[in-house]
From TrEMBL:
Classification via Pfam families: SPOUT_MTase
Subunit structure: Homodimer.
One GO CC annotation: cytoplasm
Recorded superkingdom: Bacteria
Subcellular location: Cytoplasm
Name of the coding gene: rlmH
Keywords, ordered alphabetically: Cytoplasm, Methyltransferase, rRNA processing, S-adenosyl-L-methionine, Transferase
Catalytically driven reaction(s): pseudouridine(1915) in 23S rRNA + S-adenosyl-L-methionine = N(3)-methylpseudouridine(1915) in 23S rRNA + S-adenosyl-L-homocysteine + H(+)
Name this protein carries in UniProt: Ribosomal RNA large subunit methyltransferase H
Residue ranges of coiled coil: none
Protein's organism: Solitalea canadensis (strain ATCC 29591 / DSM 3403 / JCM 21819 / LMG 8368 / NBRC 15130 / NCIMB 12057 / USAM 9D) (Flexibacter canadensis)
Record-linked CDD domains: RlmH-like
Family the UniProt entry places it in: Belongs to the RNA methyltransferase RlmH family.
Keyword rRNA processing recorded: yes
Binding positions (S-adenosyl-L-methionine): L73, G105, L124, S125, T126, M127, T128, F129
């Protein structure tokens, strides 16, 4: 199974880039993981939030295939513990999902077209985080889930 993380706009804070790089390197030992960064929209002063989400949706939809299993990282999604999340990943692996695609939207969330395309929604917390920080938190959780599935000592419970 391949896991792809689609995100809007590049990460700019050095400390986040370092953390993301750390966990991406660690993930290479477990799974085929990649990120797709869709450039942030330019000249958005004259666009309202809904128009921005619609334009982002067009770009996101071009980045996914009809056969991809799509999970949105969304504040209204299902909340899991790390162990439950690892179990969910394992279920996708056992169902022979070819490409599991997680999507982090832009600062205003997702357009309805993206909600309609999604197979699931996942929330990392009932708190709200910046879409920049979510990238690091999520990649760490993918790494954590893989160590849980392998029975390695990274996760303590």
């Amino acid at each position: 199974m391949k896991i792809t993380l689609i995100q809007i706009g590049k990460t700019e804070d050095k400390y986040l880039l370092e953390g993301i790089d750390k966990y991406e390197k660690r993930l290479k030992h477990y799974i085929n993981f990649s990120t797709v960064t869709i450039p942030a929209l330019k000249n958005t002063k004259n666009l309202n939030f809904e128009e921005q989400k619609k334009k982002e949706a067009e770009l996101i939809l071009k980045s996914i295939n009809n056969t991809d299993y799509v999970i949105l990282l969304d504040e209204k999604g299902k909340v899991f513990t790390s162990v439950q999340f690892a179990d969910q990943l394992n279920k996708h692996m056992n169902r022979a999902v070819q490409n599991l695609v997680f999507i982090i939207g832009g600062p205003y969330g997702f357009d309805e077209k993206i909600y309609a395309r999604a197979n699931e929604k996942l929330s990392l917390s009932t708190m709200t985080f910046s879409h920049q920080m979510v990238r690091l938190f999520f990649i760490e959780q993918i790494y954590r889930a893989n160590t849980i599935l392998k029975g390695e000592p990274y996760h303590h419970e």
